[in-house]
Structures are given as structure tokens and as C-alpha cells.
Amino acid sequence: MNTQKEILSFSEYIKYIEENYSRNSLFRGLKDKSFALIPKIGRDNYLRKCFEDKVVSLDKLQDLEEQTMNEFVKMSVPHLDLRAMNQWDQWTIGQHYGLPTRFLDWTENPLIAAYFATENAGTDAAICVTDRTQFNSGTDDMGDVFSFSDTDEVLLHTPSYINSRIIAQKGVFTVHKNPTLPLDQTNINGEKCKVDQLIIPQDVIGDFVKDLDWFGINRSFIYPGLDGLAYYLDFKAKGGID
């Protein structure tokens, strides 16, 4: 990480964001500050299936990712027919529903990131911040999510507004050629990717949650629909928000 900064209140967070970042900044909330910036497909549960001679095979990892997504497209037809969508939209929807992909979620809205960092966090949380101008973003011209150029290690994908979650969460994705390598350890244009980490100590997380709710950032906003609304009201009823 380039800069680590402890944030002790919601108002300090807003002030620090305003003074240090711009609309080119992207944010990612971590419920545990120790979590690595690794896409889901690059994490241990999936790597164990893709070893050759005790070394992770990236080809096997890609095969696992593609196989899982193809099954999702076929089996999701009764709920949402993805067959006519381009691959980028299929991967976007799969990512939002929890499939293991080489996409890593970010948001353009620092309040959304703060929500994901603090929701049900049981330890010191963090918000990571990076600058979108570090990454090439020409994914519209790419036929599939694996067609990286020789010079790109990470691409930025801004999805179409194909569902209400993407709209509410102001979501964008970094797409990783090597999804086993943390973003802050990945070379971008000849040097390590620049990522800052804003740490939220556990003892102020409850105050963050309450202040975010005051600003309208809660489960019912993040996940539009009855599921999100019911979860939020149950959380309030149990005393999660006074």
C-alpha cells in the first residue's frame, strides 16, 4: 500500500476524501484491513483445484472460471436469460451474484465503499483507494474477458447499467490478467499499482454505520428490492441502528 491512514470518525473520512482524492478515484471497502486485493477466482479455495507440480496453473484457473460461468449462463435461464448478452455483461452479472471471476469490485462513491467496509465488520476495517487513470479502459473493443494485450496486467471495466444493483452501487471493476496477484503488488506501466488504505478502527465502526444510514446508505439502498429492504428493517429492529 502507498499510504495508510487511520480514520477516527465519519466526518474525518468525508473531509479526508474531499481533500485528497478526486472523481478519478475508485474505492473498495474491506471488512478486515488485512484482506488482499485479489479477485475471488484467485483465492485459496479455487487455487487448490488448479495446481501443477505445486505451482498454480493460470490456464487451469481460467478453465475453472469459464466452466463455472458457462454453467451459470445455462442454468440461470429460468430466472434471467443471459445467452444473448455479450461476455462482459455475463461476467458482470455473475460477479454481482458471487461467482468466482477475475473481476474485482470497486465503486465511484466513497460512501458505498464505507458501507461495504463497515457492514458486519468484526475487526478493523479499511477502504482502499486507487486512481482509475492508471488503467486502460477499452474493454468495449475486446471480444472476451481474457483478451489482454501484452502490456496490460489490469484493465478497468465500466459496466452497462444492466441491473439496479450496479446503478445503486456505482460499480466498476478492475479485471486482472493474473488474478492470484494482489493489485497493489501488480506492475502498472512499469511500477507497482498505487493504492491507499484508510483504516477504520473497530471501536468507531458502529458510529460509521449510523452516520451512513443517516445519509441514506444502508442495505435497502445498496441492494434495491424486498430482500435488501427486509434485511435493513430486521437489522434496525435488532438494534443495529438506533
Main traits of this protein?
alpha+beta, 4-stranded mixed β-sheet, 3-stranded antiparallel β-sheet, 9 helices, 11 strands, globular
Decide which structural class fits the backbone.
Answer: alpha+beta
- Could you tell me the radius of gyration in angstroms? 18 Å
Task: Report the principal-axis shape.
Answer: globular
Q: Give the SSE order as H and E letters.
A: EHEHEEHHEHEEHEEEEHHH
Distance between the termini: 35 Å
Taking the sheet with the most strands, its summary is: 4 strands, mixed
Structure in words:
The protein is α+β, with helices and mostly antiparallel strands. The chain has one domain (4-237). It contains nine helices and eleven strands. The chain has helices at residues 10-20, 44-47, 58-75, 87-96, 110-118, 164-169, 205-214, 219-222, 226-237, and strands at residues 4-6, 25-30, 51-52, 55-56, 103-107, 125-131, 154-157, 171-176, 187-188, 191-192, 195-200. The strands form four sheets. Strands 1-11-6-2 form a four-stranded mixed β-sheet. The protein has a three-stranded antiparallel β-sheet with strand order 5-8-7. A two-stranded antiparallel ribbon has the order 3-4. The longest helix is centred in the first third of the chain and has 18 residues, at 58-75. The mean pLDDT is 91.
Q: Layout of SSEs?
A:
Layout (H helix, E strand, L loop, with lengths): L3 E3 L3 H11 L4 E6 L13 H4 L3 E2 L2 E2 L1 H18 L11 H10 L6 E5 L2 H9 L6 E7 L22 E4 L6 H6 L1 E6 L10 E2 L2 E2 L2 E6 L4 H10 L4 H4 L3 H12 L5
Parallel strand pairs: 1-11
Antiparallel strand pairs: 2-6, 3-4, 5-8, 6-11, 7-8, 9-10
Helix pairs in contact: 5-7
